[in-house]
Amino acid sequence: MKRNLQLVAVGVLSSSITLGAFYFLQGGTGRVVTLQTAPPQTNNLQLVNQKGTAVIGPDFSEVASQVVNSVVNIQNTSVATARGGMNDIFGDMFRDLPPGFRMFPDGGNEGGGRENTQKSTGSGVILNKEGYIVTNNHVVENAKELEVTLHDNRTYKAKVIGTDPSTDLAVIQIKAPDLVPVVLGNSEETKVGQWVLAVGNPFNLSSTVTAGVVSAKGRSIGILRDKYRVESFIQTDAAVNPGNSGGALVNLSGQLIGINTAIASPTGSYAGYSFAVPTQIVQKVVKDLIEFGAVQRGLLGITIRDVNNNLAREKELDLNEGVYIDSVGKESAGAAAGLKSGDVITGVEGSKVGTTSRLQEIISTKRPGDKVKLEVKRGNQTLNLTATLKTAEGKTELASAEERNAFTKLGITLTDATSGEKLRWKINGGAKITKINSGQFRNQQPTVKESFIITRIDKKEVKTAKEAEKLIKESAGVILIEGIYAGNGQEEYFALSLN
Fold it and tell me: pTM higher than 0.85 for the full model?
């Protein structure tokens, strides 16, 4: 006979609204984030079955009351561009994402269009009493103005300290007294099946708490589009919805173990699974953004994929998990360490590595110049190699805050002009603007849009994105930029102040 449990009116496990793809959930030098630790705090909730037998369950009230004071509401006032004469600021909402995913529009166009002010909301987590707050990059991108509301309804203007599209993380700052920092936990110690709480502002419902369990770790779901993207999400069944982005995922000690980022859903609302960036990634990104204004990313310089049964048969491998190396870049950290195409990485720093997402997670916590021990399977041999990580430019030295800021404070992302664009517009090369975030560029030249190809800086020809970045970093004062739009060939030139 089926035994039913009845809830005695002494508490509620969780309260949430679930509505019926994967979605994003947006609705100074030397500084180190100060973190706190706390002992576990869990109480019990009594459930009674039909025979009157008491069954003990968790009570999350103490943890919830502790964490809600560390989670904020973020309102982003941004500028979106309507295309084709239609006043539709959400025209790009579903563009260029894998099946089952959604993201908010980036406002890009091909050199024209009508601009509309757009407001969206998300969540953030207070890191320390200096007012640093971690959130998602997609919560604050394209921001013209950011407003943060605390749990006690105090409201402050915020500034962007730094963003990292590769992990979808960002750090902002407010100046406010009596802030309650979150306690940082260790996501490495989190286990599948453990209870967790999600705290955020879904549908603009402030300080909402939901509960669930960790259902998987190290998930790669293909939602990020950055060249150096890192996806190793904690998957949970805690109910989260648009507006939860940037909010806290905490364990039953009230310690932050992840930043809620995306959901799996056919509709855009919660349908069973949510995904959070683990704190082992968050901690490193936050420290880099505060200290340097950009992430100091160490790279192996290899292309990789997961080992599975099909690949094992195709490549005649005698193992069914690990990270298969398709290619090794010349003069990369991997090449210098002795890695070869066809090798399988099975361990890093003494930890077993079975997937690309797990390898990316570990490497993402390192900086250029760090040495990493690798366990590699090559045929019947097991090799132990050591790689010294390098930057994308092939350097092992950290970039100074000043060097980073000379370019990153502009708030633009550049890529090389394509061969088709060079042929069509009869240019020798160029650096195309693919993203315009908050920064000097948007503030000084709001009419210049994404897809603009920079062809000359201070009368010097620019053939690649790397050349453009170098010229900008080396320049002082005002620079003159010349270029052309990739979509219509419209030529334009303008000045930018780097001070």
Answer: no
Strand ranges across the sheet with 5-7: 5-7, 43-49, 54-59
Within a domain: 394: no
> What is the tens place of the pLDDT at every residue in 363-411?
999 999 999 999 999 999 999 999 999 987 788 988 765 555 556 677 7
Distance separating alpha carbons of residues 239 and 251, to the nearest angstrom: 15
**Both structure tokens of 496:** 């930018």
DSSP 254: S
Let me know if residue 1 belongs to a domain.
no
Quick one: which of 196, 169, 137 has its CA closest to 33?
A: 169
Q: Where do we find the tokens 């620019």?
A: 462
Average of per-residue pLDDT across 294-299: 90
Write the pLDDT tens digit of every residue in 356-369: 999 999 999 999 99
Please give the structure tokens belonging to residue 466.
């790397």
**Distance between CA 479 and CA 356 in Å, rounded?**
42
pLDDT at 42: 46
Considering the domain architecture, whether residues 250 and 136 belong to the same structural domain is answered as yes
- Say which residues have a Cβ less than 8 Å from residue 140's Cβ, sequence separation at least 6: 74, 76, 122, 146, 160, 163, 170, 172, 438
Determine, yes or no, domain membership for 440.
yes
Q: Looking at the annotation, which residues are catalytic?
A: 138, 168, 245
Measured distance CA(478)–CA(86) in Å, rounded: 37
Mean pLDDT over 126-142 rounds to: 94
Q: Residue 438 is part of a domain; what is its CATH number?
A: 2.30.42.10
Got the DSSP string for 98-113?
Answer: -TTEE-------SS--
Give the mean model confidence (pLDDT) for residues 151-162: 95
Q: What is the pLDDT of residues 448-485, one digit of tens each?
A: 988 999 999 999 999 998 899 888 878 767 899 999 99
Give the chain's length: 499
Dmax of the chain from CA atoms? Answer: 86
For residue 305, give both structure tokens.
Answer: 């994929």
State the CB neighbour count (10 A cutoff) for residue 362. Answer: 18
Q: How many domains does the chain have?
A: 3
